[in-house]
């Protein structure tokens, strides 16, 4: 029997599979599509996702395939500069198309021994106290100890579980596609600049090889959003908003998306869990969707691996929902707010002008960007040090960098005192004695996802906190 089946081979599913394999968990990824899609729905990685790639030793391959930007106007298209003092060693957005991200993550998963089966659609599931049985479209049954649905906003896993998906349906819809144009680039740029003075949901920009990425409001909301729009629909809407269709032709792909906002009532139902778009959908404003899913995967991976290995403390797997559900709710709220600020109606425009004034204060601008980039996330670990529950930025050490020590996905005690011990947890936690001028605390205990589980210098206090996240100590190791 497999340890974990992951339904869905997008960025969330692939990242989760890799995280599980770091801990020796047997993983099978089932992907309905027979080949990777060329649709570029997401355009890049935010700071927290960039940090996670660095934590796992993957950043160099991503940097080699992307471009770094300090993007202005990132919150609701309000033109304010990128903040100067973000608490990160990676203060940029990494422009990288979603198909490239998926390719790199698939390569990583394969390197770690993940089996990916394409053309396999999950159509049924049942679970008992020992595991989960899934049924494929061709009738094949598969058995695993756990199942994770990473199968998108129309998640079959979520529907089969009967998990509620409350929220709001789409009120507005947007057409998105890649195609060629028949007018000079300077003409396109001039027209787009004029239209975007009032309509921030409009855009026609070069995407390379003579192809343009076209984003234009739709005429209404389609009854079935799974049905792609036609090129003629794009032409009609371009003429309606820009007075010209730019002579668009030769489309590579065409799609539509809405502003529906929904959040799964629960992320876990016994041995089945949800992650990524299967757990939450929201408007793409701020480019947070793919990033939110990757961050779900890193939060869940080590916890599920601990459960499989048998050392997870009580409640650890349930902490996935407790921590990530509020994060998704906050993302839904900020995307709702951004959609309102993109409206051309007088009321939202008045609020937009007021917020634009407030964002001239550096603290406000930085706060909003920290929301979008997810470096402002703090899990509720209770009272304690100001770092508690926060992810720790990469810091320089006397011998290298912090994130270089986290490639294996284990816990980490960074000990600047040299007086602490994690004897009994050495199979789960690396103990590194080193110093950093950038870290004003004697020692920190990091969970595998990089969040601070403890900070201080008291050995007894550390021993009190270790079982909460890393289970019962190995008594034989303690004796030794």
From TrEMBL:
Record lineage:
Bacteria, Bacillati, Actinomycetota, Actinomycetes, Micromonosporales
Any single Pfam family the record assigns to this protein: FAD_binding_3
Q: State its cofactor.
A: FAD
Q: Which UniProt key words apply to this protein?
A: FAD, Flavoprotein, Monooxygenase, Oxidoreductase
Q: What is this protein called?
A: Rifampin monooxygenase
Q: Which Gene3D superfamilies match?
A: 3.30.70.2450, 3.40.30.120, FAD/NAD(P)-binding domain
One MF term in the entry's GO annotations: monooxygenase activity
Q: Does the record's keyword annotation contain Flavoprotein?
A: yes
Ranges that cross the membrane: none
Q: Does the keyword Phosphoprotein apply?
A: no
Domain FAD-binding, chain residue ranges per copy: 2-335
- Per the UniProt record, the source organism is Micromonospora sonneratiae
SUPFAM superfamilies in the record, alphabetically? FAD/NAD(P)-binding domain (SSF51905)
